[in-house]
Amino acid sequence: MWLKPEEILLKNAFKLWVTEKDNEYFVLQRRRGYGEGGGGLTGLLVGTLDTVLDSTSKVAPYRILHHTPDSQVYWSIACGVTKEEIVQHWDWLQQNIMRTLSVFDSSEDVTSFVQGKIRGLIAEEGKTCLVQEDDPEKFREAHLRFEKWFELPPGEKLVTYYSCSYWKGKVPCQGWLYLSTNFLCFYSYLLGAEVKLVISWDELWRLEKTSNVILTESIHVLAHGEDHYFSMLMHLNETFVIMEQLADYSIKRLFDKESFQREPLKKPRLEANAKSEQFRTFFRLPKEENLLEVHESFLWVPFSHFNTLGKICLSENYLCFASQDGSQCHVIIPMREVVNVEKPDSSSRALTVCVRGKRALRFSEVRDYQRLANTIRSRCGINASPQHSASSEVMCCDCFICAILLLFKLHPLKEKMKEQSWNIHFSEYGRGTSMFFTRKTRDLIVRGVPEALRGELWMLFSGAVNDMATHPGYYTELVEQSLGTSTLATDEIERDLHRSLPEHPAFQSDTGISALRRVLTAYAYRNPKIGYCQAMNILTSVLLLYAKEEEAFWLLVAVCERMLPDYFNRRIIGALVDQAVFEDLIRENLPQLVEHMTDLSFFSSVSLSWFLTLFISVLPIESAVNVVDCFFYDGIKAILQLGLAVLDYNMEALISCHDDAEAVTILNKFFDSVTNKDSPLPPTVQQASVGNNDKASHISVDISELIREAYEKYGNIRSEEVESSRKRNKLYVIQTLEDTTKQNVVSKLRVTSTGACSDTVMLPSLFIYFQRQHFLSCYWTMNSPALLHHDPSLAYLEQYQLGFQQFSMLFSLLEPWAFCSIKSTLSLWVFRLIDENQDGLINFKEFCCALDTLYTGSFTNKLKFLFKLHLLSIKLSGRGKVDLQAYLKQWQNEILKKEESIKDLPRINQTQFIQFSKTLYNIFHGDPEEELLYRAVAHVTSLLLRMEEVGRRLQEPSSPPESKKPANSTVGEESSTEESSTTPESSDTSSSHNSQDLSETEWSFSFEQVLASLLNEPAIVSFFERPVDIQTKLGLAKVAQLKSKTNK
Fold it and tell me: What radius of gyration, in Å, describes the C-alpha atoms of the chain?
C-alpha cells in the first residue's frame, strides 16, 4: 500500500533490508529473513523477531523508497506484504511517474511532485477504505475484553485498539494496546505470563515517536518516572495522533475543569479534530471552523503563469488552497467574498471561483469537481453578505489614529519605495482577504512593512480581518457592556495603563490611554478566563499605534486565543511550552553554546519576556514593530528564529562570560544597540525608547539585517515541527507545574502539621491519591460536585475537592481500622465533621487533618474524633432539641484551635453512646485480641452506667430545691434533660439488674467520663496507640482505587 512520504535514515536500515531493484529515483527493498536467501544470521534474527509477533502488527517485508541522485535523503512511499503487491506499485511508478520526472530541473521539484502524487493516491484509497476499516462486531468484542481485563468502571469507553509489542525491559511482549477516554492500557498473555499496564492520560510526562537500531520506529511513553515503549504498530502514525489527542484533552483538564466533555470521545472524532486543528493553525482561521472536505487539484497561478499542485480545503465558511510543490503558495477565500462559481469544465475537470474585486481562481483536475462546485454555491448562498466596514463601528478611534500618524514625520523616499514594492506585489498577487501568500510575500515582510500598510497587513496575516468582518458591532457592544464595571481585571488594567509605552507621544495624552483602556477592558469582559494579564498592555499599545481601535481589539483576540494559546493566564503555560521548544532548538542549532552552558534553564528565564511581549519589552519600539510584522506572518516560528539569531550573534561573548548576571548584561546591551535605519519615528521618540543606556560599547545592529540573518540561518525550521514540539513539551511543562505545586502544597502542610501530615513520603503519595480521586469523580459523572462548584480563583490547596461519594470511597481505602464503609452512615458523619466551611466538599487540607488524627494522633485525640462523630448523629436521627448550628460552629472553632479543651465538648446522650459502643465493636472486629477488647468495652459501658446511676441518686434529695432556682441550672445538665428522646434497649446485659431507674429517665455522659473509663482498660489504650503501617495502606489503596469505583 502507499505510505505518507516520510524521511528515513538508511545508516541502520541497511542491516535490516536488502535492495532488490533500483533506478535513478526509486529503490525496492526486501526485509532480511524473507524471500530467497534468508540473509544469514542477521536474516534469521530479523525473521524470528517478525514471525513471533502477531500478523497484524509486524513490519511489512517489502518497501519502496524515493530518492534523487544529488541527495542523501530517502523517503518511504510504499510497503507490501507480498512481492506481487510491491511489484504492482513498482510497475505503476515506472509507467506513470518516471517519464514525468524528466521535465523537472531541480531535485527539490522532483521530490515535491512525487510526494504530492503519493499523498493524492493515499487520499483516494482512504475514501474507499474508510467504511470497511471499522468493524462494529470486532470492536464490540474488543470492548468486552477491555472491560474484563482491566476492570475499569462501566462508564469508561474504549476509543480504539491496536496489536503491538510492549517492551518490558529488553524483552518484547506481544499483545494489545487499548486506548480509552481516560486510560492507556496494554494486555499480554504468553506462555502463562500475564502483562497488564494501566496508565491515566493525565499522568503522562512524555509522548513521542522514537527509533533506534532494533526498532525502526516506536512510541515512547514516560509516566511515574518509568519509560514504556510500544512498537510493531502497523498504523503507527495514526496511533500516535490519537494518543496525542487523548493526552492533550486529558492534560487540559488539570488546569481547565470546563474542558470535561459530556460527549464520548471516538476515533473518527479525534482524527477529525486533529486535522481541523492543523487546518485552522495553518490558515489562521477562527476556532469554530472545521475541515469538511479535502480535494487534490491544480491552481492556476497568474503571476507565475503555471498550474501549481496542491489541495483544496473546505470548511463551513472558507475555501482554502495550499500548494504541495515547494512553492509555498497558499490562498484563503472567505465564502462571503465569493460572488459566483462558473459552470465547471468537464474536459479538464475544472471550476472557476469568482471573488470580489473582479478576480477569479481556476482549479483544475478536481476529481469530484461537480459536487465541489455545488457545495461552494450552496455555502455562498447562505453566507454571502456585504463586506462589513469596521470604520463605522469604531468608537473614537479614527481621530486617535490620525493623531498618531501625524506624530510620525515619515521619510518620504524610504516609505514611498516600500509602498511601491507592496503595490507591485498587490497588483500581481491580489490585495485583501483573497491575496496569494508566497515566498515573495515573506521576503517583503523581512525587509520591512511601510507604516501606512502595517495595520492592514497585520489584520490580514493574523486572520483578525475575518473575525471583525463576521462580527459587526460586536466590539461596540462589548465596550458599552463593560463600561463602568469594576473587577479585579479592571483594577489591574488601571494600574498598568500609564506603564504602557510611557515614552511614546501617543500614550502621553488621554486619547491614547482611553483607547487602551477600552480595548483591554472589552477583552477582559469577552474572555473572563483570561481577563487581563501583564504584557497584554504592552502588546495592545503597539497594536493601537498602527491599527484602528476595533482592529486592535480583534488583533488582540487573534494573538491571545489562536497565535499564542495559553500564554495569557496565571500560569503562562503557553510561554513555558514555547521556552521548552526554544531549548530544544538551541540544542539542535547551537551546539557550541550547549557545550559551554549545560544548564539551558538560564535561557528560559531570560527569554520569557521575549515570548510574552514579542521582543517589544527588550527592543526599541521602532525595531520591535519589525519583529511583530514577522510574527503575524509566520507565527511563533519567527520569534524562535530571532531568538536563535540573537544568541548566535552573541555566541563568543556568552561563551566567555563567567556567570548568569554577566550573560544578562551582554544581552541587554545588545538589545539596546539594535536600531532601525528605516524607521520613520522622530529622533526624540527613538532616543526615549532606547533610554539612557550606553550604546557606545556595542556596535549598532540593524533590525532588518538581524531578521534577514535569522531567516537565512534558521528559516528551515518548519511550522509543523514547531507544533509537534509544542505538543510534546506541553505534557512535560504541565506535569512539572503540577509537581512543583504539589511540593509547595506538601511543604505548606508539613510545616503546619505534625504526625502523618509531616511525613515526607506519605504526604506526596496521599496528594496523588486525592488528586486521582478528584479526577475519577469527574471522569464518569458530569454532575460531580467538584465540577459543578469548581472555583478557579481558590488557592491551589483547595482546587482539588471531593464530594461525599468520592470522599467515602477514598476514605474507606485509607482509614486505619476499617470502621467506616462506603455507604455507612458513619462515613457521612466523618465527612460533615471535617467539612470546615460546610460547602459539601472536602479539600486536601481537611482530608489530611482527619487522617493525621487517625494515623498518628494521641489516644485522647483519636477518642475525641470518634466522640464528635457520634454527636453529629443528632442531625441524622432527628431526635432531641439540640441547637445543631451552635454545635457545628463550636466544633469548627475547636478544630481550628491548636489546643482544645475537652471540657467544652457537649455531652453524649444515650442513643449516641449506644452507637459509639457499636462503633468500637466494629473497629475491634477481626483483631487478634478481639475478645479481650469486647470485654473491655462491656466493662466500660457497665461502669459508666453505674456512675450515672450513683450520680442521679446523690442529686435526688436536692433536686426539688434546685428546681426552684432555674437561673442556677448549668449548661452541662441541659443535654441530660431532653424530654423528646426515647430510651433504646441496652446492649449491655451486665448492668441490667441495677439500671431500672435509668431506663425511665434520660442519661448522658461527658467526654471526660468516657475518656477516664477507657484509660483504665490497657487493651483499648494499646490498640489505639498501636502504630499503623502507612506504606502498606497506601500500597493497597493504589491497587484498589479504581476497583472501588467499579464495585460501587
Answer: 36
State phi, psi for 925 to the nearest 5 degrees: -65, 130
Specify the DSSP class assigned to residue 312.
E
- Residue 1015 grid coordinates: 484509660
For the segment 373-389, what is each residue's pLDDT rounded down to a tens digit? 888 988 886 444 444 33
Q: Does residue 127 have a pLDDT over 50? A: no
Give the separation between CA 289 and CA 277, rounded to whole angstroms. Answer: 9
Instruction: Count other C-beta atoms under 10 Å from residue 680's C-beta.
Output: 18
Instruction: Kindly state the cell numbers that stand for 607.
Output: 527569554
CB 621 within 8 A of CB 671: no
In terms of Cα–Cα distance, which of 7, 426, 479 is closest to 216? 7
Could you tell me where the beta strands, DSSP code E, fall in 913-1016? 1004-1005
Domain co-membership, 704 together with 773 = no
Residues 448 and 368 in one domain: no
Residue 767 near residue 746 (C-beta atoms within 8 A): yes
CA 522 to chain centre: 26
Beta bridge partners of 718: none
pTM of the model: 0.73
Closest CA to 529 of 193, 793, 264: 793
Shared domain for 776 and 919, answered yes or no, is yes
Mention every residue, 6+ apart, whose C-beta is less than 8 A from residue 234. Answer: 56, 57, 58, 60, 162, 163
**714 or 511: which leads in pLDDT:** 714
- Distance CA(432)–CA(417), nearest Å, equals 21
For residue 294, what are the domain limits?
A: 284-378
CA dihedral 822, 826, 830, 831 (to 10 degrees): 50
* pLDDT tens, position by position, 239-279: 999 999 899 888 777 666 555 555 567 788 888 888 898 89
Tell me the C-alpha distance between 663 and 650, whole Å. Answer: 10
